[in-house]
Design goal:
By secondary structure, the chain is an alpha+beta fold. The chain is built from nine helices and ten strands. Helices cover about 45% and strands about 25% of the residues.
């Protein structure tokens, strides 16, 4: 079992806040639209199945889900969404990957570039930091919903690669192709998941120097808040000292 990332814990708490205020709906709708391009039947489209499951997890109305699928397949207008992935570095050298879904590529490129520049970071070429991450199935389970022994036995039996401990959650990591298998395994065991997605997981963590912590947090916060940003991933981690410095 691996240790937790303090930045990841902060991010997950912010994601929960986003869900409460409805912002997550927009991101999931875009993901459904993009996924539906490969086919509108969730049973034959793993990416769409994952997106629909995420929508249901936040109680998105079925009408909204079906409308997003039809936009993606072209049955109704409004499905012109481009995917862009940005790679770069935060102040101090922590790697950042930003996944976007936009209807205006030029606007998004300009605004994301400005965010990096404003906080002293810089964008890199395609592939410049992607090698530092692995695409994994990432499932979060609140500690109150499963004991360590129960979770370890179930996760490893289903084929999980690792189980990490965070402050309030267990994080279960698996190969992307096992995502649906893992989700189904927890559902059958009656263990609710706080979130379940295919994510870019850093191979190693890089501690952010406290002197760069403020700019690091401002940059990741600004990226997370941008309407076109779907996901932000970083190998940067924050010590207690860095967290305190970032809040000054």
């Amino acid at each position: 079992m691996s240790g937790h990332s303090k930045w990841a814990t902060i991010k997950h708490k912010k994601a929960a806040l986003d869900a409460k205020r409805g912002k997550v709906f927009t991101r999931i709708i875009k993901e459904i639209m993009i996924a539906a391009r490969s086919g509108g039947d969730p049973e034959g489209n793993p990416r769409l199945r994952t997106a629909v499951a995420a929508a249901k997890a936040v109680s998105m109305p079925n009408d909204n889900i079906q409308r997003a699928i039809k936009r993606g397949t072209g049955e109704i207008e409004g499905g012109q969404i481009d995917e862009i992935t940005f790679e770069g570095y935060a102040p101090g050298g922590a790697a950042i990957m930003v996944e976007c879904a936009t209807d205006n590529r030029n606007r998004t490129v300009s605004e994301i570039r400005h965010m990096f520049s404003k906080q002293g970071g810089n964008l890199g070429e395609v592939g410049s930091v992607a090698w530092m991450f692995e695409r994994k199935s990432q499932i979060l389970i609140e500690k109150d919903n499963a004991t360590e022994e129960q979770l370890m036995n179930l996760a490893l039996e289903a084929g999980a690669d690792d189980v990490k401990e965070e402050e309030d959650n267990w994080e279960v990591l698996s190969a992307p192709e096992l995502h649906s298998v893992m989700v189904d395994a927890f559902a059958k065991a009656g263990i609710p998941t706080a979130s379940a997605e295919i994510a870019m997981i850093p191979k190693n963590l890089v501690e952010v120097d406290p002197k760069n912590a403020g700019a690091f947090v401002r940059l990741t916060d600004a990226l997370e808040e941008h309407d076109d940003v779907q996901n932000v991933y970083t190998n940067g981690d924050l010590s207690d000292e860095a967290v305190a410095a970032s809040e000054k």
